[in-house]
Amino acid sequence: MNIADQQHSVVRWQGHALPLAAYTFLTTVVTWPVVPRFFTHIPGGGDAAWFLWQLWWFKHALLDLRQLPYRTDLIYYPLTDVPVTSQTPFNEFLTMPLQVAIGLVPLYNVLFLLSFVLSGYFTYLLGLALVRRRSVAFVGGVIFAFCAYRGMRGLGHLSLLTTEWMPLALLLAIQCWRRPTWQRGAATGIATALIALSSPYYVGLFLFPVIGIGGGYMLLARRRRLKERALWRAALVAATVAALCTLPFYLPMLFMLSDIHTVNQDLALSSWRYAADLLSWLLPPGFHPLWGSYTAPIYANFTTPNMMETTVFVGFVPLLLALSTLVLRRQQRAARYWQLVALVSGLMAMGPSLHVAGRKVMDGLLFQWLLLLPGFTLFRIPSRTGITTALAVSVLAMLALHHWQQRLTARQWRFLWPVLMVIILVNITPLFPYRTSDRTIPEHYQTLAAATERTAILEISGEALPSVEAYYEAMSWYMYYQTVHQRPIVS
After folding, report:
1. What is the pLDDT of residues 124-135, one digit of tens each?
2. Stated pTM of the model
3. I want to staple 162 with a disulfide (CB 3.0 to 4.6 A). Which of 122, 198, 264, 270 is the partner?
4. How far is CA 201 from CA 44, 192, 379, 429, 465, in A?
5. 381 to each of 95, 220, 359, 417, 484, how far by Cα in Å?
């Protein structure tokens, strides 16, 4: 290898290692004190403990009991055939070797932290493919990885926090679009499957709008490309690979659909409750370290007090940058698809009815009509489409920054870039310090684990009885304790 090749290799290595290191550092800061409490606490609480149970149960069923994990007798005692649905197959199935190696709680924290690092890094790579400016692409990664939606989901929804495959799939799809081959099609199919295997919700609330708008965009603006056989072959390979990777994990759930169809239809009637308020796009969540005292009373008036389900804030600066692409002539063609994704997904996130400060203004929004599609009632919480909007806004912000950077001197940009980074991070970080929960299991559960007699356990918490939400949160922890004592619980 000559000197030129060595220098090129160093530059390429630095182009990946430096952003990964930077996103790792920012993740440590934004989620503080998760890293120093890595072995003793988990981020958030409530449903986070339930996801610990999910991770444990799938490993326990497959590796210890040698049975399929879709039925259990450990909950709702004395029932012996309780169905268990897979909420995040990627995390539940594909991380079992890591769980065996390092344990349950460290695994959860690894998945939590990696979701921030890789969401930023893959968005950075997507930005490089679009604007070819490392500093601009890095900002885009920050906007997506640390957006308020992700920060709030990290408090309890591991499945919805697993967003790193979204920018990766889009990057691979763009590469396949530019140079279609069956290999690129296969890679796109695998990344698409990883999105579906992160959360079933992202099948309808990310893949559906992204692929649907992409198909419509090609028909209207890029019809000539549709005559290329190589493109069709690559698309067929991508669809086949995605289906083959996904169906083995979700096929058992499909057989349960007839049992849960009526339940989902009833739940879908309350989808307006779990939708994004118009003001939630413009206001930081009520936990924000600077603005939370001002916005918390406003969020309290939204259709649900659960800020995990109403937070879609993408930040003032990213939103302004994204909106500026509407008037930047040079960016119009590159931005058009992402503008459509941001618009459609933003409308979907607001549910079947438009609410402003908790008050219903009008019915008949896009989500109301989507619920008429067969099976769409499975995706009954519209605000979760907010992550699709966040990614589209991140890309649009990169396109706008690329435009403005070209009009600045190198010295001006070197000054503006860190200032911009600080403003964006402070603006979008939903809470600081990050909330954590002690994962220590009470000693009497350890005693139960050592006992030879297998008896059922009735858990009663005086603190849990007055509130349904508190009761469910307490039960999540009781399920986590079950990972030690492994006895049926009466709930």
Report:
1. 999 999 999 999
2. 0.92
3. 198
4. 21, 13, 6, 24, 30
5. 27, 30, 18, 36, 33
